Amino acid sequence: MHTFMPDTQHIHVASGYDVVLVRQHVRQMARDSGFTLPLQARMTAVVSEIARMALDHHWNADFTFRRITHRGHNEIEVLCRSDCMRRDQESVASLLHDVQALIGDGTLVVNQHIGQLTIRFHA
Questions:
Q1: Which of 28, 31, 111, 119 has its CA 20 to 30 Å from the CA of residue 39?
Q2: Distance from C-alpha of 96 to C-alpha of 99, rounded to nearest angstrom
Q3: pLDDT tens digit string along 69-115?
Q4: Per residue, what are the HEC states of the chain?
Q5: Rounded to an integer, what distance in angstroms lies between the CA atom of residue 31 and that of residue 14?
Q6: Which residue, among 123, 82, 119, has the nearest Cα to 103 in the 3D structure?
Q7: Using an 8 Å Cβ cutoff, are 110 and 79 in contact?
């Protein structure tokens, strides 16, 4: 069973400033959820890379951040949604290649048909 915590945040990435907001938000959520410093750094790097790619390729992306408790453990779920992602297979493939090693024990799911990328990090 998943329990969604009350703090869900949405950020639309339309500028470099928004990429910074995405980066800061995931780091703060990770810190508040008790994730280790190395995992905080990896999470921040992954989400920042996705946000930069979205901005660089004009994906007009929306990010949603959620804190989840699953079997007594904290998790953070990050969703990136963009209609443009559905048509940009080459960039999505490149992005996956770039961030896969940083995901670690987390999960990364891409549903290109609906233009959604989901990452879940486990504490």
A1: 111
A2: 5
A3: 888 888 999 999 999 888 888 888 898 888 988 888 889 999 988 99
A4: CEEEEEEEEEEEECCHHHHHHHHHHHHHHHHHCCCCHHHHHHHHHHHHHHHHHHHHCCCCEEEEEEEEEECCEEEEEEEEECHHHHHCHHHHHHHHHHHHHHHCCCEEEEECCCCEEEEEEEC
A5: 25
A6: 119
A7: no
Type of residue numbered 33: S
Instruction: Give the residue among 50, 9, 52 at the shortest CA–CA distance from 28.
Output: 9
The whole-angstrom separation of Cα 92 and Cα 24 is 23
Cα dihedral 48→6→106→23 (10° resolution)? 10
- In this structure, what token pair is assigned to residue 75? 């998790």
